[in-house]
Design goal:
The chain has a domain of 35 residues. The chain contains two helices and no strands. Keywords: Membrane, Transmembrane, Transmembrane helix.
Length: 70
Amino acid sequence: MSIFVIVPAVLLLIIILTRLLQWLWNMTIPLAFDGGRKIEFLVAFRLLLIGVLLSSGGMVSCSPSSAGAA
């Protein structure tokens, strides 16, 4: 593939992930730290998604690890 295809694709992916994180953050953090309220399942799930995006950069693998294999 040409560099003229790869670079714009990577930049577009970065922009999409940044906007997703911004949307999740603005929708979740005020609800999570409202004070006195219990955190509902959807808020907890959004917090989990924010943690995954911030810690792994969105690179999540669903394959089982080989650490437990004999």
